[in-house]
Automatic annotation (TrEMBL):
Organism of derivation: Gracilibacillus boraciitolerans JCM 21714
Residues involved in GTP binding: 17-24, 85-89, 139-142
UniProt keyword terms in alphabetical order: Cytoplasm, GTP-binding, Nucleotide-binding, Protein biosynthesis
Annotated GO CC locations: cytosol
Location relative to the cell: Cytoplasm
PROSITE patterns: G_TR_1 (PS00301), G_TR_2 (PS51722)
Keyword S-adenosyl-L-methionine applies: no
Entry-linked Pfam families: EF-G_D2, GTP_EFTU, RF3_C
Cited Gene3D superfamilies: P-loop containing nucleotide triphosphate hydrolases, Peptide chain release factor 3, domain III, Translation factors
Gene Ontology BP terms: regulation of translational termination
Gene Ontology MF annotations: GTP binding; GTPase activity; translation release factor activity, codon nonspecific; translation release factor activity, codon specific
Functional summary from the UniProt entry: Increases the formation of ribosomal termination complexes and stimulates activities of RF-1 and RF-2. It binds guanine nucleotides and has strong preference for UGA stop codons. It may interact directly with the ribosome. The stimulation of RF-1 and RF-2 is significantly reduced by GTP and GDP, but not by GMP.
Cross-referenced HAMAP family: Rel_fac_3 (MF_00072)
Name of the protein in its database record: Peptide chain release factor 3
Length: 522
């Protein structure tokens, strides 16, 4: 099979959701479709260890399949599916965001009983900002949830995105009768078991269900939606401007999951071209290239190895090939590589372009910020991965002042690697590290101690709201401990506002000062 055909087959995506919305349950169903596991059940055990706890590891533990699958891949109906794991917000780190740079689409799962939950909004917004096509699955229809229209409104409001319901639930919870599959023009009957009955809409007049008041109401509601709602547009979906919304239930007996997945697979984009410092590189470009989006230390406690995750962007990867790290020009032989498969941590001999993810052994030479690896005769680099504005901040000092040198070295390297972000107080110099999740601090402290032999003291200055300033508008006198003025690693000024109130008060007082929010969805 030619490179072009291989690329077209690929569907690389991440499932994003608030903890407990049903990501694990859904993943299990998809793995069943891919024949990677044979039985699905509820994964009840909750995270125990702090490091690298992924929901998948829970699945793996329970099902006895091997650990360390941050990426799962399987064949499904002629497609090659790659699912990338993104940890829930309790294990959040910038890695979660960086992973989003390596996928071609996302599946957003929302709990119908809860709607979009506050702590997860950022994650969803980042997808919208980056223009990643978002497919929405509203889960737990077997329970009494919020009104479907209310849920759609919320998605539109929060993400500033059009919604297009692909199906529409008839009742919910105990009154749940099934879904009107608007896109395929059929009714899918909920029988309370594994069987789903598919009835073409044209045959529905013969079904006694049509007499049911709930069914009638739903048909009327849908007629209204057809008139007043947005039109479906695959182009807009692929631009990230419209999200197809599927209703269903991922838990056994799953409902609406098969139709969702089949439709998703038929619509989700295959890998596309990517921008580089030289030209746009198409996935069918013959030379191998890829970028690193995540480095995981100590994934497996038995091997204290570090693994860099690389997304193949063009050409074909073959084991043992020589590539260059574009940033340093250093040549390296990719000998020890792994493709992450749920059933085993197989050594991968070759991986094709477009979305395939390989794990490569990292002797400490890669940077998470998006190091590019290219076939030797090439020198281009993919766009650097964006920095995501952190929200938690801590002042950091070395416990023992005699260790200042190692302290600086450790911080420098960990910042370079992208494990944490460093800010400098202004005008009084102090070191403040920012993170998007608590886990990053724990990893930071642990690595400083074990890799650089420095114990660090962290003093929290709490969750803050960062807003960037234009240089010409900076006036240090306006800021204090409450609204702290700092510089980022590019030397840009930003203010860490104590809270929403402090931010609003400042805007009121100084309307002429522009405050830039890097999370603004437009
Ligand atoms: P995650 O934290 O997003 O991975 O969520 P899980 O998949 O672990 O699910 C969280 C809880 O919700 C578990 O107890 C599941 O059994 C339950 N759950 C998941 N999907 C459904 C569903 O469709 N209906 C109902 N009633 N419960 C569900």
């Amino acid at each position: 099979m030619g490179l072009q055909d291989e690329v077209k087959k690929r569907k690389t995506f991440a499932i994003i959701s608030h903890p407990d919305a049903g990501k694990t349950t859904m993943t299990e169903k998809l793995l069943l479709f891919g024949n990677l596991i044979r039985t699905a059940g509820t994964v009840k055990a909750k995270k125990t260890g702090k490091y690298a706890t992924s929901d998948w590891m829970e699945i793996e533990k329970q099902r006895g399949i091997s650990v360390t699958s941050s990426v799962m891949n399987f064949e499904y109906k002629g497609h090659k599916v790659n699912i990338l794991d993104t940890p829930g917000h309790e294990d959040f780190s910038e890695d979660t965001y960086r992973t989003l740079t390596a996928v071609d689409s996302v599946v957003m799962i929302i709990d119908a009983t809860k709607g979009i939950e506050a702590q997860t909004i950022k994650l969803f917004k980042v997808c919208k900002m980056r223009g990643i096509p978002i497919f929405t699955f509203i889960n737990k229809l077997d329970r009494e949830g919020r009104e479907p229209l209310e849920l759609l409104d919320q998605i539109e409001d929060v993400l500033n995105i059009e919604t297009y319901p692909m199906n529409w639930p008839v009742g919910m919870g105990k009154r749940f009768l099934g879904i009107l599959d608007r896109y395929n023009d059929q009714f899918i009957k909920y029988n309370g078991n594994e069987d789903e009955t598919y009835i073409p809409m044209s045959d529905m007049s013969e079904d006694e269900l049509t007499e049911h008041p709930t069914y009638q109401e739903t048909v009327d509601e849908l007629a209204l939606l057809n008139e007043a709602g947005d039109q479906f547009s695959l182009d807009r979906v692929l631009e990230g401007e419209q999200t197809p919304v599927f209703f269903g239930s991922a838990l056994a007996p799953p409902f609406g999951v098969q139709t969702f997945f089949d439709t998703f697979i038929s619509m989700a984009p295959a890998p596309g071209p990517r921008r580089t410092t030289q030209e746009v590189i198409s996935p069918v470009y013959p030379d191998f290239s890829g970028f690193i989006f995540k480095i995981q230390a100590n994934m497996n406690p038995q091997h204290r190895d570090r693994i860099a995750f690389l997304r193949v962007c063009s050409g074909k990867f073959e084991r043992g090939m020589n590539v260059n790290v574009a940033r340093t020009g250093k040549s390296i032989r990719l000998g020890q590589t792994q493709q992450f498969v749920a059933s085993s941590r197989d050594t991968v001999e070759e991986a094709y372009a477009g979305g395939d993810i390989i794990g490569i052994y990292d002797p400490g030479i890669y940077r998470i910020g998006g190091d590019t690896l290219v076939e030797s005769k090439q020198t281009f680099e993919f766009d650097e991965l964006p920095q995501f504005p952190p929200e938690m901040f801590q002042r950091v000092t070395a416990k023992n002042v005699m260790k200042a040198k190692q302290f600086r070295k450790g911080i420098e390297q960990l910042v370079q690697e992208g494990a944490i972000q460093l800010f400098r107080g202004y005008p009084y110099d102090s070191m403040i590290i920012g993170a998007v999740g608590q886990l990053q601090y724990e990893v930071f402290q642990h690595r400083m101690k074990h890799e650089y032999n420095v114990e660090v003291l962290l003093e929290s200055i709490g969750e803050r709201i960062p807003r960037w300033l234009k240089k010409e508008q900076v006036d240090a006198k306006l800021f204090d401990e409450r609204n702290l003025l700092v510089k980022d690693r590019e030397g840009e000024f930003l203010v860490l506002f104590k809270n929403d109130f402090a931010l609003r008060w400042f805007i009121d007082k100084h309307p002429k000062i522009d405050l830039i929010d890097l999370y603004e969805v437009n």
